[in-house]
């Protein structure tokens, strides 16, 4: 398996970064939903969930997202499946690029919100991100909080469109699209061929001959 992308498949670096970022974003949302729906606003666990996990994980995701985007710019992009119409291909490309934008802007607005409130980010006890590089400004912090809040809705919409597109390809068109992103999947295009051969009866004829 190649580390780099090729014309027909994603490389290992893209795949690993994709899943770390995807799981990270789900964890970030999960922490907020847990805080908002399962904890008392003043519960002792809240500072740990936000300051101890949400913030340092978010800063880590920010750097990984920058790395993933830089890697994408320097790599070939595998072609989309041919069964997609020109419009679907265009929409998928726009959603993917927007997801990268989201993965960079979401943590950045959180980080700026914290910094303009003069709050540092303790990176899991390993080191502290430069605490007060920016002067505390209440209005600016509130503005970035609003951005962080509204970007969360945009993120829901983008992830929904991303997953809806994948579900359509997988269930309606019977394409092994998820396999394109699976790190242990060597040759997703072979999987797709086997499936379409099975549908047209080619594999069955070959099996009955032997
Ligand atoms: C991909 C990364 C991130 C995601 C998906 C994310 C998601 C969210 C969401 C959905 C909220 C609730 C927003 C609201 O309704 O007010 C929130 C709140 C918050 N986020 Fe993030 N966040 C990320 C990164 C960060 C980073 C890097 C920081 C700071 C260094 C941060 C700091 C905060 C704080 C302090 C709150 C609580 C605001 C409050 O309720 O007072 N976030 N985040
Ligand atoms: C269970 C959840 C997810 C699944 C099954 C999934 C699956 C996939 C697959 C199969 C592709 C490749 C599409 C193609 O064939 O070209 C892809 C691409 C992508 N996904 Fe996801 N994804 C998930 C969640 C997420 C999340 C939460 C994010 C970010 C917030 C995300 C961001 C991206 C991006 C940016 C790409 C484009 C990669 C590139 O072309 O460089 N995904 N995803």
Strand/helix succession? HHHEEHHH
Quaternary structure classification: single chain
Taking all residues together, what is the mean pLDDT? 87
What is the SS-derived class? mainly alpha
Largest sheet: 2 strands, antiparallel
What's the tally of helices? 6
The termini sit apart by 31 Å
Domain module count: 1
Strand content: under 5%
Q: How would you write the strand order of the largest sheet?
A: 1-2
What is the helix content? 55-70%
Written overview of the protein:
The protein has 210 residues and is an all-alpha fold. The chain has one domain. Helices cover 68% and strands 3% of the residues. It has a two-stranded antiparallel ribbon. β1 and β2 form a beta hairpin. α2 packs across α3 and α3 packs antiparallel against α4. The chain starts with 11 loop residues before the first helix and ends with a helix. The structure holds protoporphyrin IX containing FE (2 copies). One protoporphyrin IX containing FE binds next to α1, α3 and α4.
Keywords:
210 residues, mainly alpha, elongated, binds protoporphyrin IX containing FE
């Amino acid at each position: 398996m190649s580390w780099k992308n090729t014309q027909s498949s994603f490389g290992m670096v893209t795949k690993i970064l994709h899943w770390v970022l995807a799981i990270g974003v789900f964890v970030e949302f999960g922490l907020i939903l847990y805080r908002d729906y399962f904890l008392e606003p003043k519960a002792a666990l809240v500072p740990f969930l936000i300051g101890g996990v949400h913030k340092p994980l978010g800063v880590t995701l920010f750097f990984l997202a920058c790395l993933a985007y830089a890697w994408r710019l320097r790599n070939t992009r595998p072609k989309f499946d041919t069964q997609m119409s020109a419009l679907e291909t265009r929409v998928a490309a726009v959603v993917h690029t927007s997801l990268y934008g989201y993965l960079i802007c979401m943590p950045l607005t959180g980080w700026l919100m914290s910094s303009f409130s003069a709050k540092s980010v303790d990176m899991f006890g390993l080191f502290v991100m430069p605490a007060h590089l920016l002067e505390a400004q209440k209005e600016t912090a509130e503005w970035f909080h609003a951005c962080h809040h509204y970007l969360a809705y945009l993120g829901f919409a983008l992830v929904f469109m991303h997953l809806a597109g994948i579900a359509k390809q997988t269930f309606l068109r019977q394409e092994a699209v998820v396999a394109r992103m699976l790190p242990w999947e060597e040759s997703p295009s072979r999987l797709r061929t086997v499936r379409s051969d099975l549908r047209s009866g080619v594999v069955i004829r070959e099996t009955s001959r032997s």
